[in-house]
Design goal:
The complex is a heterodimer of chains A (about 230) and B (about 350). With about 230 residues, chain A is α+β, with helices and mostly antiparallel strands. Chain A is about 25% helix and about 10% strand. Chain A has a domain of about 140 residues: Alpha-Beta Plaits, CATH 3.30.70.3270. Chain A has a 3-stranded antiparallel beta sheet. A two-stranded antiparallel sheet of chain A has the order 1-4. In chain A, strand 2 and strand 3 form a beta hairpin. Chain B has one domain. Chain B has a two-stranded antiparallel sheet. A two-stranded antiparallel ribbon of chain B has the order 3-4. In chain B, helix 2 crosses helix 9, helix 4 packs antiparallel against helix 5 and helix 8 runs antiparallel to helix 9. Chain B is globular and about 70 Å long. The model of chain B has no long low-confidence stretch (mean pLDDT about 85). The chains are: A alpha+beta (about 230), B mainly alpha (about 350). Chains A and B meet through helix 2 of A and helix 1 of B.
Chain lengths: ~230, ~350
């Protein structure tokens, strides 16, 4: 049953006059204007100490501090000798609710685990950034702490991360139009403000895959084996 | 005679190209920057020439280039002629109003007195009201010629709003005319140079405070800006300039910014003493207690011109402040405010002023 509520909307003299409320509002915005203009002026004449005149961050040049637990773009950690920590145990692929991870395992005699990923693909178009893969990983290999969030492209294939990009995600940031046609080595120093030190691998060594890749290519002449470069 | 015509032409060029147009262009930038500063933001600062940004001033240039490089589209169902002239009517009305504003005291150069005013009409006050109401034609023509239901609805809202507030606008100014006893704007300004008890300047805002409180909102309603932007209502109800694009749409906006300058000049002239500086006579400062400070005539003239410019800029700033502070009226509230609240007060003001002047 409908309820009827009688609300007395009779305007008092103060609200009917408009002017008191109008001047109060104007006073608030004018105060903001003058306080901020004062701060801008102080900064302009070189007094950098005071409060900033605005809360704006000039985004592409200045990054907002992100929480450390934020789930951003994936990466796979490497051992000191450049080997991926991943042992292709498939736990993350199993845990993934979106089926966006696909791993092609291979034997790797040189490692204590005797197993390594020949390819590791993450389809970012499907990924929901839930972080279940990170929790599932028994080797602490996959992480989502790169703080890279600018994932955009006009092509679907650019949303598929492969093993080299997962081991060193920094080049993914160098895809903007201002970096087009430039080598990653030249661009990366300009991105130092992004604080990518924690995702910078000491060394990446994927040489263990070459034999396996060659064998797979030879076994399927003319075709590209699924899940491999 | 030829000299007079040349002088008038020079005045027109200097005022139009030297003051109003640059000020209107600057206001497009000031509006974005001021609103940003009021809202703790930075505002437009990215447009640059060779890496030089100058606080985003080049955004004016970028906006202009953008507007003029867009397609000049006239809808096939529109009345082409009326559609094309509508924005120019608004611009014209805003520009010519400035002709009667005295922006400085008469200068005497080489034995010849030069009035710092384009046209010293003896009906200056009526001229302002007449051309102020020309602005409504721009809205009507734009809405009607677009042959678009929504544009026409916007134009109808515009007509009823602007005509309603014109009544209050005219009546609130009658008080000023009664007090100063003239409809010539230079005389109105000169009358505001007197003082009560030698201390309080006889500015319109002090002699006619109620008229000022009625004039300001009514005049802002005439400029169709935010608390009264019902004819346009860009954020949801869209209005009379719906079918316009490119340069003609930019002309509507430029006309609006010119109206801001004109309104600021009007408020300054009618209510804040025009070019008068408090306690500044022709010879120098004369204070209420008899103390005097003699100044050179040139310095006095500069002070008075500066005072006009300062007041002009202040009222431009105040209008932007109002535009970025107050939300829009609902349409019935707007008309109720105009007809049932402001009009009786304006009439009361006229009657009371007349009685006080008689007694």
């Amino acid at each position: 049953m409908a309820r009827f509520v009688n609300v007395d909307r009779q305007a008092t003299l103060k609200t009917a006059l408009y002017y008191p409320a109008v001047w109060t509002g104007l006073w608030i915005t004018a105060r903001h204007f003058f306080v901020n203009m004062g701060r801008h002026t102080l900064h302009a004449i070189g007094l950098k100490g005071g409060k900033p005149g605005s809360t704006t961050l000039q985004y592409p040049e200045v990054m907002r501090p992100l929480p450390r637990v934020l789930r951003s773009l994936h990466r796979i950690k490497v051992h000191e000798d450049g080997r991926p920590k991943c042992t292709a145990c498939m736990l993350c692929e199993t845990a993934c609710p979106d089926f966006c991870i696909s791993i092609t395992p291979m034997e790797h005699d040189g490692s204590p685990e005797e197993k390594a990923p020949a390819e590791f693909r993450i389809d970012l178009d499907r990924c929901c950034f839930c972080g279940f893969c990170v929790e599932a990983c028994p080797k602490d290999a996959i992480y989502m702490d790169t703080q890279i969030m600018e994932i955009s492209s006009d092509r679907r294939e650019n949303f598929i991360l492969r093993l080299p990009e997962l081991l060193d995600p920094r080049p993914l940031l160098c895809t903007g139009p201002e970096f087009r046609g430039k080598s990653v080595e030249k661009v990366l120093p300009h991105l130092s403000w992004r604080r990518l030190d924690h995702v910078t691998p000491v060394r990446v060594d994927l040489s263990y895959r070459t034999e396996q890749l060659a064998r797979l290519h030879a076994g399927n002449p003319g075709t590209r084996p699924a899940g491999l470069e | 005679m030829l000299f007079e015509i040349l002088l008038a032409l020079v005045k027109v060029v200097v005022i139009l190209l030297g003051v109003i147009l640059p000020l209107a262009a600057l206001l497009t930038w000031a509006e974005r920057k001021q609103s940003a500063v009021m809202q703790d933001r930075i505002g437009a600062n990215r447009a640059d020439i060779l890496g030089l940004r100058v606080w985003g001033l080049f955004n004016i240039l970028a906006d202009g280039i953008k507007a003029f490089s867009k397609e000049d589209w006239v809808p096939p169902f529109a009345n082409r002629f009326l559609f094309n002239i509508a924005p120019f009517v608004g611009l014209f009305a805003a520009m010519v109003t400035f002709a009667v504003i005295p922006f400085g005291p008469p200068l005497t150069i080489g034995g010849r007195e030069i009035a710092l005013q384009v046209a010293d009409l003896n009906v200056g006050f009526l001229y302002i009201l007449a051309f102020g109401s020309m602005g409504v034609y721009s809205v009507v023509l734009a809405g009607w010629a677009s042959n678009n239901k929504f544009a026409q609805l916007g134009a109808m809202r515009g007509i009823s709003q602007m005509i309603s507030y014109e009544v209050v606008l005219g009546l609130s100014l009658v008080g000023i005319v009664l007090v100063t006893g003239s409809v010539r704007l230079p005389e109105i300004v000169a009358a505001q140079g007197q003082h009560w008890f030698g201390w309080i300047p006889k500015w319109g805002v002090f002699t006619q405070p109620l008229a000022f409180l009625l004039f300001l909102p009514a005049a802002i309603a005439e400029t169709k800006r935010v608390p009264f932007d019902i004819p346009e209502g860009e954020s949801e109800i869209i209005g009379y300039n719906l079918e316009y694009s490119g340069a003609k749409f930019a002309l509507f906006l430029l006309g609006e910014f010119m109206e801001i300058v004109v309104l600021a000049a009007l408020v300054t002239t009618l209510f804040f003493g025009g070019w008068q500086v408090p306690w500044l006579a022709d010879t120098g400062f004369v204070l209420g207690n008899g103390a005097t400070l003699d100044l050179a005539p040139a310095l006095v003239a500069v002070l008075r011109l500066g005072s006009f410019l300062l007041k002009l800029l202040f009222f431009c700033w105040l209008q932007l402040l109002i535009r970025w502070t107050l939300p829009r009226f609902r349409f019935d509230h707007l008309l109720r405010l105009g007809w049932k609240e402001m009009l009786p007060l304006a009439l009361l003001n006229v009657v009371v002023t007349a009685f006080v002047m008689l007694s």
